[in-house]
Amino acid sequence: MPGTAQEKLARSACQFLASRLLYWQGSHTTTRQLLAKRHFHATPTASVFTAAWIPSRVKTPWVDALAQSRDEQARGKSAAGQQLPPKPDLTPKRMSDSYFSAILPLAQDKWLLDSYLNASGRIRLGTLFMDLDTLAGVIAYRHTGDSVTTVTAAADRITLLNPLKEICDLELSGQVTYATGRSSMEISLQVAKAPVNGEKVKSEDLLITCAFTMVSLDPATKKPIPVAPLVVETEEEKRLFQKGEENYNAKKALRKKSFLSQTPDESESNLIHSMWSKQILSKMTSTAAIENSDARTMSSTVLKSAMIMQPEDRNRHNFMIFGGFLLQKTFELAFCCAASFSHSRPTFVALDPSTFENSVPVGSVLYMNSLVAYTEPLLHEDGKGNSKYTKVHVRVDTRVRDVEHATRKSTGSFHYSFIVPNKVQVMPTHYTEYMMWLDARRRAQELDPIIASRFTEDAASARMDGVTE
Fold this sequence. Notes:
Number of helices: 13
CATH class of the largest domain: Alpha Beta
Strand content: 15-25%
Largest sheet: 11 strands, antiparallel
Order of helices and strands: HHHHHEEHHEEEEEHHEEHEEEEEEHHH
CATH architecture of the largest domain: Roll
CATH topology of the largest domain: Thiol Ester Dehydrase, Chain A
Number of domains: 2
């Protein structure tokens, strides 16, 4: 006789459990076949790549650093109060003393490559920016020693020189190239296609050149302290040192040119007045003048982001976020802003000198606000007429707040230049936007000759075909 509903349910459950037991007992071979068919495999421990500079960025596991901090708070003591840090070594050093290089084996390790590729199979420049900042920190400590605290104060220039045409191993290298005994030092870095058999890097294989300014602080007081000056010996070292001095003076001059302390000059005032009067006239004659052209208002290009700062992105001092993380996130937001504005895939050209104004604590909330601040058409090779490409300058302003949102601090402004493959234009509409437009225009005009020579139609086309993004 057929059983009750409860009995039928019980028998079905038993049959299901029995079938699952048989499956798990006898399906090891089938499972292995399935994994093989799907190309899944266990990666041996020895094949996992860890960049040589990563252990130098973080010295203590977060759980240990957090426990130590809580213990110090409970005892009412700080590490600085328990032990005075040793005095820094101010013995003059050579540039070669801080030199460091490492190979990023992207062509050899596909699992490593996973963390550097985007959805279109191109190398994520933002991830390389993180590596460069970390590498700058490693080089800085080779110059100062471990008795001081070193932080990133500015990214003086990041320039994409030559488009990378294929996925290959990359060599990251650099050294301290400017230090006079003050608290700051300039570190020059480069990313290049890894040379073969110890050969020197060829100029056409250079992907990125950049300079970071690092500042040395007293670990207890967090006040700037001097670092060892450089001994300059060769002609090449003299050239690098002179370039560092020029960058130092240029940063000071840039601060004096800020529109917060200096009004626009006569030509700039005439220019923005002409732009403003044309906008007023267009509104009087046709309210759709802007919408029917290639121009967009600056306010319509705004793109924002917010995120909580996690311990995995901390620096070696454990409770602050390292500067490379900000570079990566501001770059990616700037990229999205330029893409949204132009309806195309932008190609990175350069990061203008940008300053890290305040540190970003672990656990805080980082706010980022991006907008297109300036556009300029590229000229044809013969200099006659405009090409189909446009230079797009994106400004990213960042600020940090605690989780309770009781405090608010600016953490810096970052200025990225891109090329887009169509004709677009941004239009400021009120005084604050006009000032940002003029600031971005000045930055575009002050690009060094190496960058300016690459703002051409042919070079733009070559960059579009590269494997970086």
